[in-house]
Amino acid sequence: MQTKGGVDVRQGLVGALAFALAGFLAPACNNKMPTATDAASAAQTTVAVAAAPSAPTTASALPPPPTVHTVVAREQNQPVALRADAANIYWVNHGLDAAGKEVPNAGSVMLAPKDGGSPVVIAAKQDSPTAVGVDAAAVYWTVSNGVRRAPIGGGSPTTLFALPAGAGMPVSLVVMDKEVLIGVLHMTRGGVYRVAKTGGGKPVWGGNEDEGFPAWGLAPWNTYVFVCNGDGSTLGRAHLSMHALSIVVEQLGGCHSLTYDSDAMYWGDDGGHVRRLPFLGTGTPELARRMMQSLAEAKDLEEVAVDDAYVYWTEKAAGRIVRVPKKGGSESVVVDGLRAPQALAVDDHYVYWAEPSSGMVSKAPKSAEAAAAIAARPAPPARPTPAPAAVPPPPVRLPGGAKCPPGRVVYQDCMHACIGPDGCCAPGCTW
């Protein structure tokens, strides 16, 4: 779930759309925000933080969490979404002006190498980017009226799909093999769109007032996409090719940061529960109610992410990142002492998060085991250092009155570059 300056972006979107489409985000930030050019200036640095509280004592409890984390980027302008691939971490800066208010084309799309290096601006002057995704070749992101992409290796951004006027605003994105799914928030016309990576799109469901389903979170599975509606009260299921929508669960009690793996969906609700629902348990609303699990209690949950074994979430007010086994068990703190962490991503060794209020994107080992594995990795090969240019030996300074060979003069009578090792100038090379 993204927030702006401490205000829940979803609440701002839904509330504003109830009255008008314009100005959907509730601005609340007093920090001066830099430009996209400024955003690429900071290198990765390591920061010491307070030790986290001990995890619940169980036979499988992890050692205390790491006490340091690495700042990947500073001075970012409202980082609100993160994704990671094998080499890089990506995020979008939603963009505010110096007064903390949303203005057109103040956002940017960013990249930073995982193993260190300065952030790189992939695209500047973007209009309210909110979600980001990546595949092997390109980065994809939503803007106020559609979806854009740019090559990871560099190149100009292109628009894949522009929504029809008045269709709403895209707020979620999932990158698939040949297409991109976007969730569009609109009180009466919201829905899910399929956008081809080659360009062009069409609604899976919604797009008109008869079928409107304001889509916030997306989770694809087989031939379906599961959708959380804008106020988090309903989880629906739309067929990707048959233009049919069915209700999976109503009165959901909140659906924050819907994410997924190959077997299940995960989210946080308004009651502070971290939820899990297997895809195979969504055949009927009654079955879904029975199969839905509460894995943990969270405090002010913002964003959810998963890896092979754990569910992770950010707790904004507590300033920490917590995890719990996917199949249930004791919670443990991954990193603590943070400043209102929100956006979240994980990979094999690290957890990454963004702090919109401080403008920082950071990372830390996600467990003591991960920290040990990182320490055991061989150091990357050193970059070759160019050999220094050869410096000629100083010339022999001939004593005054000494003679040079015919056609050459003593060193005082020519440019330094012309002086030979015998202290005489090269033939014809004089002042």
Structure, explained:
The protein is mostly beta strands and 431 residues long. The chain has two domains: 3-376, TolB, C-terminal domain (Neuraminidase, 6 Propeller); 390-431, no CATH class. The chain is built from four helices and 31 strands. The chain has helices at 9-17, 36-39, 285-291, 368-376, and strands spanning 3-4, 7-8, 45-48, 68-73, 79-84, 88-93, 107-113, 120-126, 132-134, 138-143, 146-151, 158-162, 169-175, 179-185, 191-196, 201-206, 215-221, 224-229, 235-239, 245-249, 256-260, 264-268, 273-278, 293-297, 301-306, 310-315, 320-325, 332-335, 344-346, 350-355, 360-365. The strands form eight sheets. The chain has a five-stranded antiparallel β-sheet. The chain has a four-stranded antiparallel β-sheet with strand order 5-6-7-8. Residues 1-11, 13-41 and 48-63 have low confidence and may be disordered.
